[in-house]
Amino acid sequence: MNNEQPINTDSPKDWNRETQVSWNTNASVWDAKMGDDGNDFHRLLVRLATEKLLEVKEGDRILDIGCGNGIFSRRLASLGAKVVGIDFSEQLIACAVERTQVQDAIAYHVIDATDETALLSLGENSFDAAISAMALMDMAEIAPLFRALTKLLKPQGCFVFSVMHPCFNNPHISMVAEETESDGEIKTDYSIKVSKYLQPTITYGLALRNQPKPHLYFHRPIHLLLGEAFRVGFVLNGLEEPAFPANYPNDYLLVWGSNFSEIPPVLVVRLKLLA
Ligand SMILES: C[S@@+](CC[C@H](N)C(=O)[O-])C[C@H]1O[C@@H](n2cnc3c(N)ncnc32)[C@H](O)[C@@H]1O
Questions:
Q1: Is 207's C-beta closer than 6 angstroms to any atom of ligand 1?
Q2: Which residues are CB-neighbours of 154 under 8 A, at least 6 positions away?
Q3: Phi, psi (5° rounding) for residue 175?
Q4: How far apart are CA 258 and CA 262, in angstroms?
Q5: pLDDT digits (tens, 9 = 90+) for 24-41
Q6: Which atom, in ligand 1's list, is nearest to the CA of 207?
Q7: How far, in Å, from the CA of 63 to the mean position of ligand 1?
Q8: H-type helices in 121-252, by residue range?
Q9: Which of ligand 1's atoms lies nearest the C-alpha of 16?
Q10: Average pLDDT of every residue of the chain
Q11: CATH number of the domain at 12-166+200-273, out of 3.40.630.30, 3.40.50.150, 3.10.310.30, 3.40.50.1970?
Q12: What number of CA atoms fall less than 13 Å from residue 154's CA on the CB side?
């Protein structure tokens, strides 16, 4: 995913606009890939770990931030939650509405998660929990979201989010397969080569190989990612690092799958507000 083209924009507002154009442009390809229920990456890694940390209860009111075509919103609704799904891509929200049955208790809104005032219009102290599935590394700014969440969540509420693992699945990694011959046997070892981690970076990348327009990735090392949350009073009280199981079928050599079952492509964390 090393796609370090120069970025022609110079402020978070420009980056955000550029990101929004990309997600609108890529919406139909993304929607076709994720379908009603998500792909294996979503179901086996993101969903399982998020649900483990979230512990959804019937009737919980949950905010899904960067909901895309609504895969997680629908899943949460099927578990009995009342869901509000937000995304700044009008096109993806249209896909989400299209794929959602009237009886699902989901309200979708086009809202920019970098706009604190717009977020607060959703209602202070009105959510039992919030989630964000694989979206924070796509957001130009995350401080406004964390600030807003301190007000949107009820006192015992939690925020569970997943991101591309900043250590092992950032825009500066290479996936490596090395073949060796030893004692008459050929063996392949798989590893991840990390060339950058500590500096935050903004680079173009591809979430899907066939997406029409590359979009910006906002890589943040873990201390900066969580530092934004700690600054406004969140504490970390749950963490998962899911990887594909060793028996997962591997169709290709160098994609996330059982070849990399020892290396987590996703980081999932649960944050709570200090009482
Ligand atoms: C990788 S997709 C994940 C979508 C969905 N959560 C899923 O799991 O399929 C990232 C999503 O974040 C959304 N996004 C990025 N920046 C955003 C922002 N500033 N406000 C709202 N949504 C944003 C994109 O439009 C896109 O739908």
A1: yes
A2: 125, 126, 127, 128
A3: -90, 130
A4: 8
A5: 999 999 999 999 999 999
A6: 1
A7: 13
A8: 143-152, 222-231
A9: 19
A10: 93
A11: 3.40.50.150
A12: 10
